[in-house]
Design brief:
about 400 residues, about 15% strand, two-stranded parallel ribbon, Rossmann fold, 8-stranded mixed β-sheet, alpha/beta, homodimer, 10 strands, 11 helices
């Protein structure tokens, strides 16, 4: 520990790095549109409390059929946003996160489908979240932002569906936190979904998932720049960057697999000419730092905390008499898809979903994609996952059974 | 985040909690003895640099046979120490960590064997480590403590063996970081070991293992009380407790398994009457906090960093022409034992050890213990692991083949 530049030292972030990577009002809209839930003005939350003037940023691709029957809702994962496909550019810090899945001639074919994705409530890419201005003060919510749940997110999406004139989604698709939303759509609004595609998700967050979340949150909160969530007036460069980067690095390991890490990094050193000497820095460390730093530039630490908790609180059985009773509310066909090497959302969870739906007399297709990529396989195995979705949609049609 | 008492707030530690949980000179020795490596006075390190007046704290059980042939070395894991068996009490903050394995009539039977365990070099329970006084200044090494490797630790143990008059261990046994030491014994000093028992270990740390270590270290270093490693003069209550607790909590998840977490905690809430409300605190979070806080009371944050790095740097192939060449140096029989559900040290690693030893013409018994307990199974599955060790020792005898 004698070398001040050694890797366990918190990285110093550029002094002009904004304290949050959130999209801010006044920034270029890019491909976003905005919808404000203004009737009723108060958006009540499952955990108590309410939000006023909730805005959702969303994007669409393709054309809605006159009968509104070709609309597909894509629900994004923890650090995703509405930008499913498209270039990075003004207003969009990153290219679309599922560009190979969505577009003309792709598995979700925008020549035929009208695809919608909204940044989730609590998010930081245009929808109302902790970095958004509070309507009373004009200053970011920060520490006063309430606890959300997947159900709150889905209720806000249903309002968007009403606004867009979509009475019933052909299907609702999502992976990870997106799968939680897709599943809640099936449970909360069975008449509004033709089918549900739950990829690498679960009916209820497991103890291990909660454990990972909790450690990441606690590490983030250890960052002195976090200030209990009220860091938006810190000087540039003094946001909770290090804390957010650590939470992300931790999560990044859970998203991949031993096999992929071993193949990709093994024990390769980052820079054998480094002043650290040959002991001090492995490629995998550099990779984890890179992912942490990359997220810091486009994300908000409080949104990370809020959405992490959203995932922990995910439990379709809560206040509904348990998982079996909740699964029985789903009337549409369900695709339940796992990745073989996913240790974060292990296949058992999607098997449990399948079994619960079938036990309740519903229709469920269980598919497991053989991949070494771990949880991120739902994003990376575009061909296999896309094929599974296409096959499922061909089989179940619009879901009316 | 509106409630200042919410769990993502760093816990406030008692204002009288010492900044380190290290054993300090002047504390009760308990069952420890001390050996100082004073000839030559400079203990050279693999990574460069050297230490003066290196002390090892060790404990022994049973009686050494006149021919010295019944001596067993136990090597402890990351947060272990010399106190393999025995009560907690003066000088020993915790009861023995393998008390069910070692003792009269137990798998490592102290009626017949002379069992030795030393706190590792770099440790904090009596052996020279970053919390020890530097011989020049009398103040803790802190940030000036050098980088260590498993080979340094093993060379210090060989000096202890010389001191105790043990020419050849009947066997060297260890799990996890202990397995790394046992294996290096076999490679570095083949003539001094009758056999090697490597439990839930590996020939070289994997990229994923390094990744977990790195994230824990980075989180620890984010604690403002860590001060680059020089926290020993901080006021009580202001040690890097929160950082060390987070690193431990993270590791604790990797030590167990999804199955055990689900069985034990599921989605149980910590306290349904809690002021946090029903959303805010799960049993598993309380469990992880508990393990973090428990470690803080008996461990030193810098030792955690140093030994974590020791594990990352473990690679028996380094500067020996690779793993196969290193495995070929082992002349004694090897027990290579895995736990089925171990995701931190997955069974593939012990299989690789087995295959490398056998490919080099050596003798290796590979055993897998079927257990849901994950990596910690090497500690918890006393009966199965003990039986495997007994069977192995019965089969290979003193290892001379």
């Amino acid at each position: 520990m004698s070398d001040g530049s050694r890797p366990e030292h918190p990285r110093n972030y550029s002094t002009d790095l904004p304290v949050t990577g959130a999209w801010q009002p006044g920034d270029p809209a890019g491909n976003r549109r905005f919808f404000t839930l203004d009737r009723p003005r108060l958006f009540e939350l499952e955990g108590g409390g309410a939000l006023r003037e909730v805005t959702l940023a969303y994007e669409t691709w393709g054309t809605l059929d006159p009968d509104g029957a070709n609309a597909v809702l894509i629900c994004h994962a923890l650090t995703g946003d509405s930008h499913v496909t498209g270039e990075a550019g003004r207003g969009h810090p990153t290219p679309g996160w599922w560009g190979e899945m969505v577009g003309p001639g792709k598995a979700l074919d925008t020549d035929e489908l009208f695809v919608v994705c909204a940044n989730v409530l609590g998010g930081c890419q245009g929808s109302t979240g902790p970095s958004s201005p509070h309507p009373d003060t004009g200053r970011p919510y920060g520490s006063s932002f309430p606890t959300l749940t997947v159900r709150d997110i889905v209720r806000s999406q249903r309002r968007l569906a009403d606004h867009l004139g979509i009475g019933r989604w052909l299907t609702v698709v999502g992976g990870s936190m997106g799968a939680m939303q897709a599943l809640e759509w099936g449970v909360m609004f069975p008449e509004r979904v033709g089918s549900v595609c739950s990829l690498a998700g679960c009916m209820a967050a497991s103890a291990q998932q909660i454990g990972w979340s909790a450690v990441g949150r606690t590490a983030l909160a250890l960052d002195p720049h976090w200030r209990g969530g009220d860091y938006y007036r810190n000087p540039p460069g003094q946001g909770p960057h290090a804390g957010l980067a650590i939470a992300r690095s931790l999560a990044q390991i859970t998203y991949r697999s031993d096999e992929v890490f071993e193949d990709r990094f093994g024990r390769e050193l980052f820079d054998t000419r480094s002043v650290y000497g040959k002991w001090d820095r492995f490629q995998v460390e550099s990779y984890l730092d890179y992912h942490g730093e990359k997220l810091v530039k486009r994300f908000d630490a409080n949104t990370y905390l809020v959405l992490n908790r959203v995932m922990d609180l995910h439990d379709i059985g809560r206040d509904r008499g348990g998982l079996a009773a909740a699964a029985a509310r789903i009337t549409s066909p369900v695709l339940s898809l796992s990745i073989t090497s996913d240790t974060l959302y292990p296949p058992r969870q999607q098997v449990e979903l399948h079994d619960a739906v079938v036990a309740a007399g519903g229709r469920c297709v269980y598919t497991v994609v053989d991949s070494p990529h771990g949880h991120d396989g739902f994003l990376l195995e575009v061909e296999a996952v896309g094929q599974a979705i296409s096959d499922f949609l061909d089989k179940v049609g619009s879901g009316a059974s």
